[in-house]
Amino acid sequence: MNSNTTAEKRALRTAARIRRAELACACPDFAERIAGYADDLPVSAYARVGGYRGLSGEADPSLLLEALKARGCELSYPRVHMKSQPLWFHVPVEHEPWVPGAFGILEPRPDWPRAYPSILLVPLLAFDAEGYRLGYGGGYYDRTLAQFRNERPIAAIGVAFGGQEVEHVPRDASDQPLDGLVTELGLRRFATT
């Protein structure tokens, strides 16, 4: 990644975090609203869905994931098994505790069953009309999507507040586009290249 792109992303992340916090306060029923769009997602019954546990102020996918689980979908969650590597996804084991991961985020335990999702819900700080997302800077989701797309078909669906859209997300060759995005306003599809 060139230094200009890195600097642009860093500046956009700062502004995007502030904007996202404002949007989270303005839309306290976000989780309920996006759960209503579960049937609009390109997810068949019994599909394998990779989700995430929303952090404070992040677009919360929890009720959407519950709606997908009610349709028979297998849910899995990411774990950083090694820094600078793709994420591993695991199916939670009922009544077993999650563990703090590399960044202090609660993650699946490494002994839980590995999963290979066909749909991946992706967190983000900002997105643009071409379907590119600004992540947190670690590159985990980009590496994961690149690996998955090299191995099998997978749909990457961002989860965001509608107001997180920006005119342009700085990108380089390693950045992976989204196939779609779900916001409190509904599902939006992107033309993937």
Descriptive notes:
The longest helix is centred in the N-terminal third of the chain and has 24 residues, at 3-26. The strands form three sheets. Strands 6-3-2-1-7-10-11-12 form an eight-stranded mixed β-sheet. A two-stranded antiparallel sheet has the order 4-5. The protein contains four helices and twelve strands; from the N terminus they run ααβαββββββββαβββ. The protein has helices at 3-26, 30-35, 62-70, 140-151, and strands at 48-50, 74-79, 88-90, 99-100, 106-107, 114-115, 119-122, 126-127, 133-134, 155-159, 180-183, 186-189. The protein has 193 residues and is an alpha/beta fold.
Helix/strand layout:
Layout: H1 3-26, H2 30-35, E1 48-50, H3 62-70, E2 74-79, E3 88-90, E4 99-100, E5 106-107, E6 114-115, E7 119-122, E8 126-127, E9 133-134, H4 140-151, E10 155-159, E11 180-183, E12 186-189
Parallel strand pairs: 1-2, 1-7, 7-10, 10-11
Antiparallel strand pairs: 2-3, 3-6, 4-5, 8-9, 11-12
Overall tally of domains: 1
Count of alpha and pi helical runs: 4
**Apparent shape:** globular
Q: Which ranges are low-confidence, i.e. pLDDT below 50, for 5 or more consecutive residues?
A: none
Q: What is the strand tally?
A: 12
Helix content: 25-40%
The sequence of SSEs as H and E is HHEHEEEEEEEEHEEE
| Distance linking N and C termini | 20 Å
Strand proportion: 15-25%
CATH C-level: Alpha Beta
Concise overview:
This protein has helices at residues 3-26, 30-35, 62-70, 140-151, and strands at residues 48-50, 74-79, 88-90, 99-100, 106-107, 114-115, 119-122, 126-127, 133-134, 155-159, 180-183, 186-189. It is α/β, with parallel strands linked by helices and 193 residues long. The model has no long low-confidence stretch (mean pLDDT 94).
